[in-house]
Amino acid sequence: MLELRNVTKIFNAGTVNEKVALNGICVTLNDGDFVTVIGGNGAGKSTMLNVTAGTYGVDEGHILIDGKDVTKLPEYKRAKYIGRVFQDPMIGTAADMWIEENMALADQRGARRGLKWSITKKDRERFKEMLVKLDLGLEDRLSTKVALLSGGQRQALTLLMASMKQPELLLLDEHTAALDPKTAAKVLEITENIVHENKLTTLMITHNMKDALRLGNRLIMMHEGRIIFDVSGEEKQKLTVADLLQKFELASDGTFANDRMLLA
C-alpha cells in the first residue's frame, strides 16, 4: 500500500546547516499494516511522513501509494489517497465552523463541488452515527463550533474526518503528544477502533515506547535518517521497553539521550 524506494531528503544542502533527514530509506507497508515508528529527536520520523504526504519533495528515490508513483504529485493531489492527523489538535479542523460542517467537508474529499446545500438530513443522521462511536457526546453537538471543543474531542473528530473516505493510507504524526495522559489514552482507543474497523493501512509516529509496542502489528525504529530496526508479528510482541532502549543505545554508540522518550 505504501512503498518508499531509496528516498533521500536533505535540508539546506551545500551549506553549513546541511541536514540529511532521510538517507536512502526503503519501506514497504502491506495492505492493512499498522506500523508504529519510534526514534530520537531528528531521527527523520516526521520527515518520512511529510515526504509521503507531499509536504516536502524528495531529493532522490520514489514514493508509491497502492502501486501508483506519486513522487511528483503535489500535496493536494495526494490528499485523495491519504488521511492525516497532526500533533497539534488545532490543525485538521476549521475552528469557526460547526462539527457537521467540518464533517461535510471531509465527506466531500476528492469529489466535485457544486452550488447546492451540502448537508442533508440524511447526512446529519450518518454523521451522528459516526460520532456515537467516539463515545464523547458529540453526536448531540452537530451545530457546535469546533473551537469550543477540548483538545481530545477535537483530535478524535480529526481522526474520524481523516478516515471518513477510507484513505489508502492513514498518517498519524504524534497525534496524542499534546494531550494529557487520560485524554491520550482515550484518543488511542478511538484510533485502534477506527483503524481496525476500516482496515486502514496506518503509519503512526510516537515517542511513547509502550504505545509503540502495544499498538499495531509492526514497529520501525529510526536513527539519523535511516531505519535501524524493523520488527513485526510475534517478535514484536516479545519486545520490552528495555529491549528498545538497548537498541537505541547501540545505534547511537552509547550516547543516546532523549528525555522526552525516556519519560514517555
Description:
- The protein is an alpha/beta fold.
- It has a single domain, classed as P-loop containing nucleotide triphosphate hydrolases (Rossmann fold, 3-Layer(aba) Sandwich), CATH 3.40.50.300.
- The protein contains ten helices and ten strands.
- The chain has a six-stranded mixed β-sheet with strand order 6-7-8-3-9-10, sandwiched between helices. Strands 2-1-4-5 form a four-stranded antiparallel β-sheet, covered by helices on one side.
- Helix 3 (99-107) packs parallel to helix 5 (151-163) and helix 5 (151-163) runs parallel beside helix 6 (181-198).
- The radius of gyration is 19 Å and the shape is globular.
- The model has no long low-confidence stretch (mean pLDDT 89).
**What is the general shape?**
globular
CATH class identity:
Alpha Beta
* Oligomeric state as shown: single chain
For the record, what is the CATH homologous superfamily label? P-loop containing nucleotide triphosphate hydrolases
**What is the domain total for the residues?**
1
The rounded distance between the terminal residues' Cα atoms is 30 Å
Mean pLDDT: 89
CATH architecture call: 3-Layer(aba) Sandwich
Q: Determine the number of helices (DSSP H or I, runs of at least 4 residues).
A: 10
Portion in helices: 25-40%
Uncertain segments are none
What order do the helices and strands follow?
Answer: EEEHEEHEHHHEHEHEEHHH
Q: At the third CATH level, what is the topology name?
A: Rossmann fold
Tally of extended strands?
Answer: 10
**Main β-sheet description:** 6 strands, mixed
User: Going across the major beta sheet, what is the strand order?
Assistant: 6-7-8-3-9-10
